[in-house]
Amino acid sequence: MGASCLHIVSVFSIFLVFSVPWAASHSLTDNFLNCLSYRQNPSYPIHPAIYTPNDSSFSNVLNSYIRNRRFMTSTTPKPLVIITALHESHVQATVFCARYHVLELKTRSGGHDYEGQSYVSNNQFVLLDMFNLRGITFDHESETAWVQAGATLGELYHGIADNSKILAFPAGVCPTIGTGGHFSGGGYGNLMRKYGLSVDNIIDAHLVDVNGRIQDRKSMGEDLFWAIRGGGGASFGVILQWRIKLVAVPETVTYFNVGRTIEEGATGIVHRWMHIAHKLPEELFIRVQPQVVPAGDHKTVNVSFIALYLGSAEQLLPFMERHFPELELRPEDCREMSWVETTLLWAGFPSGTPVSTLLNRTGIPAYGKFKSDYVRNYITKKGLNQIWRKLIEVEKVIMQWNPYGKMMSRIPETATPFPHRSGVKFLIQYAVVWFEDGEEASEKYKSLVRSLYEFMTPFVTKLPRESYLNYRDLEIGNTTDAYRTYSGARVYGMKYFKDNFERLVKVKTAVDPGDFFRNLQSVPPHTWLPDSNNDKN
């Protein structure tokens, strides 16, 4: 598969480099479309993949993969053209023509970017939508797979289960997330304590570079291959596909989801969890999810303990009794099933949901605002009680606390751009979701999550206050075309990548010095202007 793709581009890239687009007096859009037509591979016509605002289906295509209604309003900037690539040559032509006509390029694989950076810009832009490129090819002998960028996690998990009962892949729990963006930002899930992140299990990739050429690991070089595995592929090119190494799981695993309120001793249980969750066997992952619930005439906090254990309930129960008796886990709490069946429960589907549901790419979009934090020091019971009171005050915000340790601690911070490794106790995601329309409602809910995030300052990492790239948050720092400086980018770059940011900048400068691939939180080249302001970490 890879050889044939590279063979096509070896001829096509020459065609791109030495051809000159029409210089007619058409509008910018017409010129771009003419360029696409002129540069298409004749064997794979691009016209069926093109949508303009004049097409009746333009809005449906645009909105079908917008997951956050904050970016589905009448005032949200729209692309001049959408290209729903049907072949890799369509991606090459789009990159070349957008660059030639000085149009910003947005690339969308699943549409889950929390800040809409994969499909929204204040500049004139075109949208390259990858949903048609979602093939998955398995190699049973090597236990690997090539996964195209438009494939969702659900499609990947379903495909793995179709091929094996004892293989899996470490990635997220939302089945509609696109693999193109998820993997390039790190990609964590409930297998990370055993196998690390998605990027720790990627062994090759195909990428279209700024010159419209398809590169694999060998041709792009180890620096660029390092950068796209956790540094955000959208800063460096367009990911076409990943080659992943599948991982072993038992034929039967165990899942539980038990809740405890403050009145039922949740504070003491969470305090104990905090001290042991990162030390537990790598086969056990226990997420803590505190949220506000009604309790008669008042409100309280219920903490859900949601777990995946790579083994049987018979093995899990005595271990929990010895090491985490505070939870009082009972046999009836434990449910044994295949790994792929647990992916549905983690995604919030009820028990008994057919595995084929993983193939559903659609969902009901809501408004949402999200943030993240990392915790490296234990929080006291007093601190936990303060957090519960604040959570009740903001009420609508949900927190997820995800334990690290084991494999995550063994992999060096510099192995990939993702630096949040050894010493991390757990990752926090803050999430608020709403369905009310209007700017007033939007500001109300966003202020709630901001308030909780600010309150958590004493409990989380500092200098920098670390954040997870895939939980993108423009409020921790961003740049604009009017103010694109290295030091401005370093504010968010240090939070996402820590000291790896400097190496990412060097890679960016080498492969895209003109900064064609960019967004409000992209990695800058050194050609960005310096700034006299003090950096803020």
Chart the SSEs and their pairings:
Layout: H1 2-18, H2 28-39, E1 50-51, H3 58-63, E2 81-84, H4 88-100, E3 104-108, E4 125-129, E5 136-139, E6 144-148, H5 153-163, E7 167-168, H6 179-184, H7 192-195, E8 202-208, E9 214-215, H8 217-220, H9 222-228, E10 238-245, E11 247-248, E12 253-261, H10 266-276, E13 284-295, E14 298-309, H11 313-323, E15 335-337, H12 339-346, E16 367-375, H13 381-394, E17 398-403, H14 407-410, E18 426-434, H15 439-455, H16 486-497, H17 500-511
Parallel strand pairs: 2-4, 3-4
Antiparallel strand pairs: 1-2, 5-6, 6-10, 7-11, 8-9, 8-10, 12-14, 12-15, 13-14, 16-18, 17-18
Q: Low-confidence stretches at least 5 residues in length (pLDDT < 50)?
A: 1-25, 532-537
Largest sheet: 5 strands, antiparallel
Strands in their spatial order, largest beta sheet: 5-6-10-8-9
Which secondary-structure class do the elements indicate? alpha+beta
Describe this structure in words.
- The protein is an alpha+beta fold.
- 31% of the residues lie in helices and 20% in strands.
- The chain has 17 helices and 18 strands.
- The chain has helices at 2-18, 28-39, 58-63, 88-100, 153-163, 179-184, 192-195, 217-220, 222-228, 266-276, 313-323, 339-346, 381-394, 407-410, 439-455, 486-497, 500-511, and strands at 50-51, 81-84, 104-108, 125-129, 136-139, 144-148, 167-168, 202-208, 214-215, 238-245, 247-248, 253-261, 284-295, 298-309, 335-337, 367-375, 398-403, 426-434.
- A five-stranded antiparallel β-sheet has the order 5-6-10-8-9, sandwiched between helices. The protein has a four-stranded mixed β-sheet with strand order 1-2-4-3.
- Strand 13 (284-295) and strand 14 form a beta hairpin.
- Helix 2 crosses helix 4 (88-100).
- The longest helix has 17 residues, at 2-18.
- Residues 1-25 and 532-537 have low confidence and may be disordered.
